[in-house]
Amino acid sequence: MSSADSWSVVDANTLVIESDPSIPRPPFVFSKNDEKLLDEIQHATFVYFWNAVAPETGMVYDRTSSDVVSVAGVGFQLAALPIGVERGWVSKEDAEARTRLIIDSLSDAPSNRKAGLFYHFINPHDASARRVGRELVVSTVDSALLFSGMIVAGEYFKGDLKRDIDALVEAADWSFFLETPGGEAPDAPFLSLGWKPSADEVPTGDGSLLPFYWIDSGDEHRLSTLLGVCAPDPDHRVPVSTYWHLRRQIGYHEGQGYVSWFPYSGALFTAFFEHLFVDRASMGVDDPSAHGVTQRAKIDWWENSRRLVNLHRDRAIENPLGLPTLGERAWGFSASDGPEGYLVSAQYPSKVTMDGARVNLDYANWDPQENWGDGVVAPYAPGASIMFEPRYAVEALRFARSIEGPDGEPGVWRGDWGFADAYRLGEDGKTDWVAEDFVAISQGPLILGIENARSGLIWELFMSSEVIRSGIARLDE
Fold it and tell me: Is residue 344 helix, strand or coil?
């Protein structure tokens, strides 16, 4: 093996992914000009979450062109409300009243959940379960995002509202969604991605788990599994061993080093969704081997995501297809709207052989393909990455804010509600396509990620929950 490829085989049992101590961690200090820009972006995003709602339930629409709610979007909305109060954009009384309306609406429609977890999509007007296309599914990850936002709101508003939120969190039976996949997968139960009813007309009746599992260590996997471990009712919990058995596939990126990556999606959101709530920046390196699980590297997940952010930016700078949009100020391959509909662009590190690791048990036997997304960039992707690389993120946000359309008017910034979901540039540097919609699960990471980078508010609230503290303590026992 030459020195040029000496990284291509690694012993995951001894590998540690950790930061150089000189790398600053959030919250960060920003210049006055940067603070002004971040204020403008957060305020516009908050106004979206405040106004783009169904009046009957107070819940934000999944997207501005739809008549449906994504419960993940509502989770982001609930977490955004304390930001609006703390930044002086809404009174605490009004924000608490909006939170109360949302929680009551969710609680009063029992058809929207199974075993305490929620359907992915619900009716914005009465909070009942709603089919969207082929999907009528109770979603574990969307429920995890909803509960995370609930927990933030409960810790902020306290009182009867926290009591009612705690009751919903306690009612969630994560164990119902556990199944041991069998075959060559690790011999441990994992959370299914969801559950489908046998009949649409009976959404809380018989049904079956989806045959797909949160088995790797992407952010959706870790957040869903962590919420399951944190369940306050012991009969509803995910075993601690499930968390430590999540696979940690290793790759390599020049200039950054080794990185754990999710083989089935190289979208940037899979590197930061958990970090919107869980303060990994203060948690340091973990150690699966201390819990009897081998072929799992010791990882500081904040540093791991910082490396993935840099990978995305580096690939945009390399831009081998010569796409007009991409460069050092326009980067972040992620899920968003695209000219042809829903788009998930992706980038991956170089593959690394994990010496002694077993296929499927310790890593996925999958050959991922990079996807350049035809140069489409979603502002939330670099924007939420401000939690890891603040200078690069602010550069990308400032650039997106400055882009013009063909008519010389703002091309990506849409005024009162901030950035459109995604954009693409033409050869002249002006937009040649801009998404029509604002999308809740894009707007949410933007406002939460920026707030964590500025103040750490969402981390402080989420991590102060006794439910979360107790669950994390169980992980370390």
Answer: strand
For residues 136-161, one letter each, b for 16 or more C-beta atoms within 10 angstroms of the residue's C-beta and e for the rest, the string is: bbbbbbbbbbbbbbbbbbbbbbeeeb
Strand-pair category, 194-197 with 138-139: antiparallel
Ramachandran class of 319: left when φ > 0, alpha when ψ lies in -120 to 50, beta otherwise: left
424 has which bridge partners? Answer: 433
- The token pair at 40 is 């403008």
Q: What is the full per-residue pLDDT of the chain (477 aa) written as tens digits?
A: 344 578 999 999 999 999 999 999 999 999 999 999 999 999 999 999 999 999 999 999 999 999 999 999 999 999 999 999 999 999 999 999 999 999 999 999 999 999 999 999 999 999 999 998 888 999 999 999 999 999 999 999 999 999 999 999 999 999 999 999 987 777 789 999 999 999 999 999 999 999 999 999 999 999 999 999 999 999 999 999 999 999 999 999 999 999 999 999 999 999 999 999 999 999 999 999 999 999 999 999 999 999 999 999 999 999 999 999 999 999 999 999 999 999 999 999 999 999 999 999 999 999 999 999 999 999 999 999 999 999 999 999 999 999 999 999 999 999 899 999 999 999 999 999 999 999 999 999 999 999 999 999 999 999 999 999 999 999 998
Contact of 12 with 260, CB cutoff 8 Å: no
**At residue 8, what is the residue type?**
S
Beta strands in 298-411 (DSSP E): 298-299, 335-338, 341-344, 350-351, 353-354
Say whether the peptide bond before residue 406 is cis (omega within 30 degrees of 0): no
Q: Within a 10 A sphere around the Cβ of 9, how many other Cβ atoms?
A: 11
pTM over cut 0.85: yes
User: Please, what are the domains in the chain?
Assistant: 29-475 (1.50.10.140)
